[in-house]
Amino acid sequence: MDESRHLQSDSSEAQLDMIIPSCEDGVFQKRGQKTRILTPEEEEKLASDQILVSDFKQQKLEKEAQKNWDLFYKRNSTNFFKDRHWTTREFEELKACRKFADQKLTILEAGCGVGNCLFPLLEDDDNIFAYACDFSPRAVEYVKQNPLYDAQRCKVFQCDLTRDDLLENVPPESVDVVMLIFVLSAIHPEKMHLVLRNIYKILKPGKCVLFRDYGLYDHAMLRFKPANKLGENFYVRQDGTRSFFFTEDFLAELFLSVGYEQVVNEYVLRETVNKKEGLCVPRVFLQSKFQKPQREM
Ligand SMILES: C[S@@+](CC[C@H](N)C(=O)[O-])C[C@H]1O[C@@H](n2cnc3c(N)ncnc32)[C@H](O)[C@@H]1O
User: Fold this and answer.
1) pTM, rounded to two decimals
2) Pocket of ligand 1 contains residue 136 by CB under 6 Å
3) Hey, what domains does the chain have and what are their CATH numbers?
4) Above 50 in pLDDT, residue 213?
5) What kind and span of H or E run contains 229?
6) What is the pLDDT of residues 101-122, one digit of tens each?
7) EC number(s) in its UniProt entry (predicted)?
């Protein structure tokens, strides 16, 4: 989400050997890693940041979560997030779960924002029907106004994933792939299981949730100033939107507790390098796939 740079690289020589260049210039990516190793300065910074935002303010942030995201889209319109063309590249399952090449797939993008994931997917693949939802009315409106929006291929609706039943808009067990891209991190950790339960009902047995979100010790986590901490690995930005940073174990427990099975759950470590300025930004994401169990025969 935020791509600012800093001067430190966390990579030792040994780790650098394992870095695999990705398709984008100046970005290096490695998968299947353990948690990023912090520098002593970073460790000290996190250890000293122990004071939590007051309960009163935390409750206000929870109450105003929808309003704060809606204001975010009012300020940024459709210009903030880059189109996420890596979705099809990274999540090959979107294609691989087909039994034959032009089989129609039904997907749900939960927390779609203004459609930065959705539209590249629909453009890349004619055989997709997409449901998409977000709790920001403005974001939903931007999706509807996009020239690529086609009601034959897409249905977008407003929905608070923690509260509104997805069954009001999506038939039970009708979806092949659910995408949760940088959405769960915006939701209070105590309510994340409600989102996963909601999704479970519309997912076909044997089909998957594809997840990508912030991982523990991502650069964005290290940049929070004191007084922005809400809880363990949970922070609030200046604009009132919140961000959680996931560990593999936390995510696995969350999905398994709702009844999903783990297929893949791994950190993706990236370094965005600006050679000219000698800057390097360590990013950590968690990229995962959890399946609704097949029905017993
Ligand atoms: C970081 S943005 C990601 C948007 C989009 N998935 C993308 O990758 O560009 C997080 C989105 O989650 C939405 N969101 C947060 N909490 C939600 C909730 N409880 N129900 C539905 N959407 C929510 C926000 O409105 C926002 O659009």
Assistant:
1) 0.88
2) yes
3) 2-291 (3.40.50.150)
4) yes
5) strand 229-231
6) 788 999 999 999 999 889 988 9
7) 2.1.1.-
